[in-house]
């Protein structure tokens, strides 16, 4: 029988060994790096209660582990607590023994029992976690562009300056002001930002206005040819800005690197970034269909899961769901987390949702939990789920209303990796 519990300081080394074996291409295998990771994980475990490591034991032996994160996320117009899981690792000698399944089951119940309505993770295999009820998040877009294709802002270079570890608090405040206005963003702490400076390859520049940091860039130089040491690209690890003007200043800084940098590579949830480029092509010269130029690559990353349907609507009691009026019966099928297999009646009055005890309703809509999780996050709309047969409705005349209830102004954006 398995036991999952918080790791002690002395057990972190065993977990680090499992992680290194589980992800041999992710971590530098040197003893120096192993000691460094062990020290970092131990520091987190002893001084950061919002990011703790847990281990799964059978007969006194650790077979796997994970790190749980207590986050605050902007969901639509409301900030809510969200649970995250990362560093999920299984002992290489104990694969296919349901270790990961038990860890994730514990993770889901851990946060549900603490009153959370939603959790999130970055999947090593999306299909594996979709079977556990996780819904797809926004696609990550990789844009690759010449510096000269970026917009120019005069005198921008004079306004930029390097940031260091002493600027962590300013970076936290800058990032979290953006969280206040951005659906899907997760608040950062000083410990989370400090990790940026742990990597000597990272460089950070920022822009201040009225004495406050209003934008910053985290970047590194990358090269695909060691012999041509003067030809390299800039990979943008993170780009944070408060408004259109501060974005222009950051992009002008990148444009000014044209004499030394071949390409700028940006990973972002912003699917409209190509509107900023004078040439939207990514340099691959690939075509899709009839003269459709390849502009960016896309990938599915972060996934979300509702672990308590009722709690989500209670948390969003001040959110306006499209100004709609409707009494809806919401039925959720959750095979993996049976306590979340539920039907509730929700009264929407001028867009404000209230859970009702009564059994009468105008329309019933039904989802699998993975589809509903993506719907409430705004990564897919109701019309699409219904068209694909992934949602059911008792009265087709209400399709438009239900679509407007769950419509979002933008898809979620997440800048936190965990």
Furnish the topology, listing elements before pairings.
Blueprint: E1 2-6, H1 12-22, H2 31-47, E2 51-58, E3 61-75, E4 78-90, H3 99-113, E5 118-121, H4 126-130, E6 135-136, E7 139-145, H5 156-159, E8 160-162, H6 168-179, H7 190-194, E9 203-209, E10 212-222, E11 232-241, H8 244-255, E12 261-268, E13 287-288, E14 292-293, E15 296-300, E16 303-306, H9 309-315, E17 326-333, E18 342-349, E19 352-356, E20 363-368, H10 369-377, H11 382-387, E21 391-393, H12 399-405
Parallel strand pairs: 4-5, 11-12, 17-20
Antiparallel strand pairs: 1-2, 2-3, 3-4, 5-16, 6-16, 7-12, 7-15, 8-9, 9-10, 10-11, 13-14, 17-18, 18-19, 20-21
Helix pairs in contact: 1-2
Description:
The structure is a single chain. This protein is of the alpha+beta class. The chain folds into 3 domains: 2-116, 3-Layer(aba) Sandwich (Aminopeptidase), CATH 3.40.630; 141-299, 3-Layer(aba) Sandwich (Aminopeptidase), CATH 3.40.630; 308-405, SCP2 sterol-binding domain (Nonspecific Lipid-transfer Protein, Chain A, 2-Layer Sandwich), CATH 3.30.1050. The chain is 26% helix and 33% strand. It contains 12 helices and 21 strands. It has helices at 12-22, 31-47, 99-113, 126-130, 156-159, 168-179, 190-194, 244-255, 309-315, 369-377, 382-387, 399-405, and strands spanning 2-6, 51-58, 61-75, 78-90, 118-121, 135-136, 139-145, 160-162, 203-209, 212-222, 232-241, 261-268, 287-288, 292-293, 296-300, 303-306, 326-333, 342-349, 352-356, 363-368, 391-393. It has a 7-stranded mixed sheet, sandwiched between helices. A 7-stranded mixed sheet has the order 8-9-10-11-12-7-15. A 5-stranded mixed sheet has the order 19-18-17-20-21. Helix 1 (12-22) crosses helix 2.
């Amino acid at each position: 029988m398995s036991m999952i519990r918080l790791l002690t300081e002395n057990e972190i080394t065993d977990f680090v060994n499992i992680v290194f074996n589980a992800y041999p291409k992710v971590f530098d295998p040197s003893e120096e790096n192993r000691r460094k990771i062990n020290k970092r994980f131990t520091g987190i475990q002893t001084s950061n209660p919002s990011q703790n490591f847990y281990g799964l034991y059978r007969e006194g032996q650790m077979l796997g582990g994970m790190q749980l994160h207590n986050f605050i996320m902007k969901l639509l117009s409301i900030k809510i607590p969200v649970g995250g899981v990362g560093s999920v690792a299984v002992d290489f000698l104990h694969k296919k023994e349901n270790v990961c399944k038990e860890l994730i089951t514990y993770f889901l119940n851990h946060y549900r029992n603490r009153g959370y309505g939603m959790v999130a993770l970055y999947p090593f295999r999306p299909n594996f976690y979709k079977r556990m009820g996780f819904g797809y998040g926004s696609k990550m877009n990789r844009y690759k562009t010449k510096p000269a294709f970026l917009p120019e802002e005069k005198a921008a270079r004079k306004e930029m300056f390097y940031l260091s570890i002493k600027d962590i608090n300013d970076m936290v405040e800058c990032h979290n002001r953006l969280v206040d206005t951005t659906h899907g963003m997760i608040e950062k702490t000083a410990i989370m930002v400090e990790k940026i400076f742990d990597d000597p390859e990272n460089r950070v520049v920022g822009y201040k206005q009225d004495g406050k940091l209003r934008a910053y860039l985290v970047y590194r130089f990358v090269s695909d040819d060691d012999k041509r040491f003067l030809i390299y690209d800039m990979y943008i690890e993170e780009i944070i800005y408060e408004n259109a003007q501060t974005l222009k200043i950051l992009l002008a800084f990148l444009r000014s690197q044209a004499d030394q940098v071949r390409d700028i590579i940006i990973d972002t949830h912003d699917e409209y970034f190509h509107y900023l480029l004078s040439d939207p092509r990514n340099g691959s010269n690939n075509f899709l269909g009839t003269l459709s130029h390849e502009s960016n690559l896309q990938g599915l990353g972060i996934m979300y899961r509702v672990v308590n349907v009722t709690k989500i609507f209670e948390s969003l009691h001040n959110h306006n769901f499209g100004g709609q009026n409707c009494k809806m019966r919401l039925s959720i099928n959750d095979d993996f987390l049976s306590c979340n297999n539920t039907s509730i009646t929700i009264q929407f009055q001028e867009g404000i949702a209230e859970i009702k005890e009564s059994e009468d309703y105008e329309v019933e809509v039904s989802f699998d939990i993975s589809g509903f999780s993506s719907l409430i996050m705004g990564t897919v709309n109701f019309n699409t789920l219904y068209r694909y047969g992934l949602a059911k409705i008792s009265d087709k005349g209400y399709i438009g209303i239900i679509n407007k209830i769950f419509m979002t102004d933008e898809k979620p954006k997440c800048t936190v990796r965990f």
